[in-house]
């Protein structure tokens, strides 16, 4: 994506919208259900659980924007702070017509769990503006972003709350936000946002990080279940930032990627696809099927008889309707919320291993943490160092989740939420409640 293009893809701290996850359950309901589910396995103070059901604060702001024709349009923006017991708030800012207060609260909770399972010193937040960014010119988006930054100035900051790109926002949006904040503060403060272009303090390797973490976790899962990658077949739905990076790494590491897809359908080759020769969404949008000899549908891709299925396009694609037909042994969630709650239960009954999004695609927020460290220390890391440190963090998180999985005989999803919640609850109990 070029810097001036309309932002479309989800950022590295993205979490799907409420209605993407399930048709009947909002992001807030999902986040609360997971909280209670994990709490059942842990001996924690019920008052802490009660506190975590609610956001700390939700900021609602009015964002007036001068359109190119001179008229003024007024938008509503939000920033929900869920929990900061482990460090500053962290989470994306989205520009989407359906942004609501409750959606920001629910998605902010997901960020709390995601940061905690990765053991990052951050809490969870989410925000956005209820606007269709595609209906605005680049100049209008810049004015919107600068005014939104000004309205949030008192509540964000490198030690308070660090936004990042999400649906409808991109590195350019973060550069404008950083510039507006810095101009008002009177000094350059790159650590106020992550996901910036490297020239203004962004990190090398950030864009590919969620896909890289999906590949690392897939490799660990295969090793855990004694499945050499060289004998492993993989199908990847979505060939964008997450899907293409994951597919290419698994291909490089010896796996056989037999299917990849975009919105138009899937390329299928049982002998294995040369993933480097097929352009990703960024390189040539929606072109996967034009390179294919055999095209199958996205629905067929999901039910292929492969070892690993990586849904990396949308939320809510494995549902009650197709869960019985999933033939993969392992599902590694590249997208946020690709498996509905009902489908999750069916897959568990069928002993299909599902590795949840909050660990699998957490490479994005982890490299955001690296970006923040580089910004506050005023020292850029090499790509090699980013890769090495990400590998270390992913392995540490994997080991923690694996320990709970083995100790408690729960699903991998429950194990990941148990790791997250126990860390958050322990911090709350140790800090205590201000009376
Ligand atoms: P992207 O825009 O780069 O790519 C999306 C891909 O999915 C494209 O190939 C597109 O053609 C395909 N697609 C769209 N609609 C589809 C459909 N109906 N069926 C099949 N394929 C379809 O997006 P991305 O950044 O790779 O994000 C993918 C998912 O991963 C989203 O759920 C996102 O929230 C999540 N995620 C992204 C990041 C990130 O930093 N990019 C981080 C964590 C999670």
| Strand coverage percent | 15-25%
Number of helices in the DSSP assignment: 14
Structural class by helix and strand composition:
alpha/beta
Mean pLDDT: 93
Distance between the termini: 50 Å
- Overall helicity: 40-55%
Keywords:
435 residues; alpha/beta; Rossmann fold; 7-stranded mixed sheet; binds nicotinamide-adenine-dinucleotide
Task: Write up what this structure looks like.
With 435 residues, the protein is α/β, with parallel strands linked by helices. Among the domains are: 53-200, 3-Layer(aba) Sandwich (Rossmann fold), CATH 3.40.50.10860; 209-360, NAD(P)-binding Rossmann-like Domain (Rossmann fold), CATH 3.40.50.720. Helices cover 41% and strands 16% of the residues. The chain contains 14 helices and twelve strands. Mean pLDDT is 93; it is low at 1-9 and 16-23. Bound molecules: nicotinamide-adenine-dinucleotide (NAD).
Brief digest:
By secondary structure, the chain is α/β, with parallel strands linked by helices. It has 14 helices and twelve strands. 41% of the residues lie in helices and 16% in strands.
Write the layout of secondary structure elements.
Elements (H helix, E strand, L loop, with lengths): L17 H4 L5 H13 L6 H7 L4 E10 L5 E12 L5 E8 L4 H17 L5 E8 L7 H14 L9 E5 L5 H15 L23 H16 L8 E5 L3 H12 L3 E7 L2 E4 L26 E2 L1 H5 L5 E4 L18 E3 L8 H9 L3 E3 L1 H4 L2 H15 L5 H26 L3 H20 L4
Parallel strand pairs: 3-4, 3-5, 6-7, 6-10, 10-11, 11-12
Antiparallel strand pairs: 1-2, 2-4, 7-8, 8-9
The structure holds nicotinamide-adenine-dinucleotide.
């Amino acid at each position: 994506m070029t810097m001036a293009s309309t932002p479309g893809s989800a950022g590295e701290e993205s979490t799907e919208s409420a209605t993407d996850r399930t048709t009947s359950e909002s992001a807030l309901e999902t986040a609360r259900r997971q909280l209670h589910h994990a709490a059942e396995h842990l001996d924690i103070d019920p008052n802490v659980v009660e506190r975590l059901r609610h956001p700390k604060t939700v900021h609602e702001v009015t964002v007036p924007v001068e359109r190119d024709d001179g008229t003024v349009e007024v938008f509503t923006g939000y920033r929900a702070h869920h929990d900061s017991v482990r460090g500053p708030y962290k989470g994306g800012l989205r520009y989407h017509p359906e942004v609501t207060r409750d959606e920001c609260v629910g998605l902010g909770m997901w960020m709390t769990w995601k940061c905690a399972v990765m053991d990052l010193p951050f809490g969870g937040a989410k925000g956005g503006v209820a606007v269709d960014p595609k209906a605005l010119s680049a100049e209008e988006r810049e004015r919107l972003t600068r005014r939104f930054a000004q309205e949030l100035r008192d509540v964000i900051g490198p030690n308070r709350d660090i936004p990042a790109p999400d649906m409808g926002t991109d590195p350019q949006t973060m550069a404008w936000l950083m510039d507006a904040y810095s101009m008002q503060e009177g000094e350059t403060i790159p650590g106020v946002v992550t996901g910036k272009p490297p020239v203004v303090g962004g990190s090398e390797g950030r864009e590919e990080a969620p896909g890289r973490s999906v590949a690392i976790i897939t490799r660990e899962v295969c090793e855990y279940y004694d499945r050499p990658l060289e004998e492993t077949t993989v199908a990847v739905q979505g060939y964008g930032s997450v899907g293409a990076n994951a597919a290419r790494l698994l291909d490089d590491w010896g796996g056989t990627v037999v299917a990849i897809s975009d919105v138009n359908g899937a390329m299928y080759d049982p002998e294995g696809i040369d993933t480097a020769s097929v352009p990703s969404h960024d390189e040539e949008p929606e072109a996967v099927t034009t390179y294919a000899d055999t095209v199958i549908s996205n629905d067929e891709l999901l039910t292929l008889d492969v070892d690993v299925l990586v849904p990396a396009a949308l939320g809510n694609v494995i549902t009650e309707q197709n869960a019985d037909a999933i033939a993969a042994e392992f599902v590694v969630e590249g997208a946020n919320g690709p498996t509905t709650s009902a489908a999750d239960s069916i897959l568990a009954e069928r002993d299909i291993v599902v590795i949840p999004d909050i660990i699998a695609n957490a490479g994005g927020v982890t490299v955001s943490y690296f970006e923040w460290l580089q910004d506050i220390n005023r020292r850029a890391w090499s790509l090699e160092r980013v890769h090495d440190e990400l590998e270390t963090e992913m392995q540490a998180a994997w080991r923690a989740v694996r320990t709970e999985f083995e100790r408690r005989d729960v699903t991998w999803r429950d194990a990941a939420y148990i790791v997250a919640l126990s860390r958050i609850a322990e911090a709350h109990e140790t800090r205590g409640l201000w009376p």
